[in-house]
């Protein structure tokens, strides 16, 4: 009995010694560190918060997937968060989350601003506390931002305008449904659109409204605009939530056949609208790349290096019913399913 009871202890002791040797070899050669060039280790991961304008949209789910892939690659401790609910309006909740990140002494913040001005002071506080700041998608008015990654919003607006100018109608009576004026990316998209379409004598802006960045507000605002201006035969709108609201309004009023709708972003519902004819074209951004490249730039900063560029533009493509089943369009439309 004594002999049989000693074998497990001998095996365990040998195993402990082997594990200790293995640990020494791995850590001594840097094999437990992150991607080559990184100083982050498994034991002490750098903490990063990805704070977005909302959490429920397909756009941000795709961005989270990209950020998650990069954080795993660079061995960073990533938390993704944003205000609750459908819509992108609660800048105060964002500011509270920034202050919490300061208290928790995170190392970096990947951020998308709801309000260009009203988020700025909180971002300045975070930078003063030593947090590195990278912004994606929607800028904030702060000198503390070290890098911006996102769509060239002016050019995306121009792309929407060029699609409208392909409409053969004799007159283009345009209705614009934009989201909050305090969000910089929406304003740049609208400017690009206006600068493009108003070069054509056929085009006129019949009505222009700003709505809350929610489906309900966009639907109600679009319905009122169409009822007040029945001559509108083109509508343009500039983000995922307003796209869904505009599409719902066009369907409810039976206006799909007589109205060209050019919109932004993709999810299952907006793709269905494109198939049915309540939306005619989608400008599809690349949120996965925004999340991935944002974390990549944060890793660069945390390693004491400077990003090669202050601003990085991610791609956008135009998807219509005619090209929506092409491989390139399918990949863009369903990027929110990236893992």
Automatic annotation (TrEMBL):
<dbReference type="Pfam" id="PF13407">
    <property type="entry name" value="Peripla_BP_4"/>
</dbReference>
<feature type="transmembrane region" description="Helical">
    <location>
        <begin position="9"/>
        <end position="32"/>
    </location>
</feature>
<protein>
    <submittedName>
        <fullName>LacI family transcriptional regulator</fullName>
    </submittedName>
</protein>
<keyword id="KW-1133">Transmembrane helix</keyword>
<keyword id="KW-0812">Transmembrane</keyword>
<keyword id="KW-0472">Membrane</keyword>
<dbReference type="GO" id="GO:0030246">
    <property type="term" value="F:carbohydrate binding"/>
</dbReference>
<keyword id="KW-0732">Signal</keyword>
<comment type="similarity">
    <text>Belongs to the bacterial solute-binding protein 2 family.</text>
</comment>
<dbReference type="InterPro" id="IPR025997">
    <property type="entry name" value="SBP_2_dom"/>
</dbReference>
<dbReference type="InterPro" id="IPR028082">
    <property type="entry name" value="Peripla_BP_I"/>
</dbReference>
<feature type="domain" description="Periplasmic binding protein">
    <location>
        <begin position="48"/>
        <end position="306"/>
    </location>
</feature>
<dbReference type="GO" id="GO:0030313">
    <property type="term" value="C:cell envelope"/>
</dbReference>
